[in-house]
Amino acid sequence: MTGSIVNIPDHYLELSYSYLANMSSTNASLFREWIAPNEVYSSANFSANPHPEAIKWLKANKSMIDWGFLSGNTNPEAIEMLKGNLDKIAWSIFSENPSDAALKILKDNKGYIKWDYLARNTNIKMLELIDVKAHWNNMLTNSNKEIREVALYVAWNHANNKPIDILTYYANCNLQGSNIRSLVETLACGNKAHKIPLSMILNSETSIPINELIPLYKDDPLLVNHIEANLDSFRTNGSIDWSKLTSLWSNPGIYKTNMPIEVSPKTEIELMHDELNDMRNMLDTSRDQFKEIEGRLFKQESRYRKALSLLKSQEEGNASIVSSLREQIECQEAEIDMLSKQSCEQIKEIASLKSQVCDQEEELEELRSDLTSYETTTTELKELTARQEAKIEDLKYINNEGTIELEILRTEKERQASEIVMLRNTLVHQHQRHEDAIDAMHRKLFEQEYDNEDIPLFGCW
Length: 461
Fold this sequence. Notes:
Elements: H1 10-28, H2 37-41, H3 52-60, H4 67-70, H5 76-83, H6 91-94, H7 100-108, H8 115-118, H9 132-139, H10 145-158, H11 166-171, H12 178-188, H13 198-202, H14 210-216, H15 221-229, H16 231-237, H17 268-451
């Protein structure tokens, strides 16, 4: 009868409901009288409370667990809950958890360790995990003196530094009056690594306001005892800020006894109570989901009805649209027939085009071969052109020299031509004089012959 609730008798179910109804009042009697249980149960800090009764309540009310605060809980049963929910662990807080069980989980999941937080873990076994040479500066703030001494040794030998041991400093001071208050303000500052023991503050002559002590010593059971012992005076003079007490719900001292409570093995009826509680939670969740789905269905149904009425109103107008669509379909079918005929003709054209393409590919191959020969010829022509250009350059040079000589020859020719003209003119004049002289001689001879009677006028002599 431990596995399922299906065969549970009715009187067991009635007993379970009455147990669940009285469970909160039963737990309420475990707290100190001045603590309101409802405020404790609704606070996220309560998940960090290591008291066995706190763990018992958290296991029965898993939906109220704050996994971030639970990650710092040192109770072995809390560590087991975290072990089964690794995806919900806050690894920065969990790396600072000083319990041996937590360190074992960290050892098996080194990839999730936050090393700066592990350096502040007060369990001496953390030295098996951490690289002291890499994190000695963070380890100097550890509240465990042995761990600080290891960090100091590494700092001295590897960093050549001289860090100050703050705890040694205030241990050697005159811990009276203003000295303690000054140390609380300057050294603690909310960092639990440098806190002065609460007993030393409470036994000193100084009176530090309780509101300053609550956030610094919220996990120290001695603080709860001190508040309860002076509760009337705190209420009378109004020196306590009750809103700050929410941080105390992680303190095991909020229960009437700080001693561990032996948890007896669960009986069959308690197991059924736990199972029934889980099923009630599932039922509540299912009811919420059902209500959400029912609301969605109602909205969809109203939308469907509106759409249906709209379709009915449109149905009458759709008849004419259908007839016109039919006519359009007939026209489209005729167009399709015509297009099919055209497609047949186009197929034939495509076949002829394919044959033409084949012919053109053959011509293209011939052209490619011609192009290859043309490229060869072009190369030869380029070489020939280069040689001819070289010859042209030579001829240009020769031509330049010939041009100069030609100009000289032209000048010489013009000079000779002018001399020839002069000589020709001279010859012409001389020839004219000779002819004139000859003519004069002929006249003289003619006159002489004419004067001679014996010689006939016409004839030879």
